[in-house]
Amino acid sequence: xxxxxxxxxxxxxxxxxxLGQIRSLRQTAIPRNYEIWYxxxxxxxxxxxxxINETLARNGKLTEADLEQIYETYxxxxxxxxxxxxxxxxxxxxxxxxxxxxNDALGMSASYDASLSGASERLAVAENRDQVKSVVxxxxxxxxxxxxxxxxxxxxxxxxxxxxxxxxxxxxxxRAESLTDPLTGLGNRKYFDRMIExxxxxxxxxxxxxSLLMFDIDHFKSFNDSYxxxxxxxxxxxxxxxLKQTIKGQDITARYGGEExxxxxxxxxxxxxxxxxxxxxxxxxxxxxxxKSTGEILGRVTxxxxxxxxxxxxxxxxxxxxxxxxxxxxxxxxxxxxICEVDxxxxxxxxxxxx
Length: 355
What we know:
The chain is an alpha+beta fold. It has eleven helices and seven strands.
């Protein structure tokens, strides 16, 4: 039997291991990182331990992007699954309660039907007023009982309808949360993968234009190294806010991963997409980054953007590959610029990659 003291000692040991790992790898002691290392210490999530050990063996460290990917892949979805399971259990409980009440009502209905049949037979042989009155009194009593059962059923069904509607809203909220990047409030990678696939299929089926912007924060690592991960998170939020203010309507925005973002532009040809991309670039650069703790001005953030447009023979992967190659060309050619697949920089980049 495990005592409270034993459990305290055991969990404190896990906590010390978690903090020790954070300290030795010089990571920020934020709740996400603590949770990763606490779970690692318990050895209850074998895939998480495996990927951490492999990454450390290969690179000797875990970057901010590594930690975020590990959390998203091996921990965050478990919380969502738990919440969905709890809501599902409540829905099942509601259904069970209503089914019990319906069964009671069916039993009462059968009893009432039998009572009516018996009353009909008794009335047929009644010989005086008192006998008729007895039959009628019994019918009135049975009718009242049936009415009360029906009223209770109606009230319970009304409550259940309201409760199930609330649970449905909870599921929708969980679903939305599972597709949202918590730091920037944009769609996450899962959201992007799902939405771009749908957008590409629609554009190909309807022969409509579609463009993709892939962009990356310039020198993002230097922000983290110079000012810490909290400032790095502030940079990501700044870019996310710029996207929210710039991109509207049917266009799809997402944090693709790490410091990389993506925008899908349905019904948008390349020339218009370039204008949107440069508008985003300018909007980001217009914002001044200030360190919250000291008020120190840290300068301006810039982004590099790659733009591709859907071709008839394309699929999602080839569209992304070209936009990514354009992004890489933008970074190789000075950063803080927009490169598309018809620019000479992109042609040079692809020739270099083939060579």
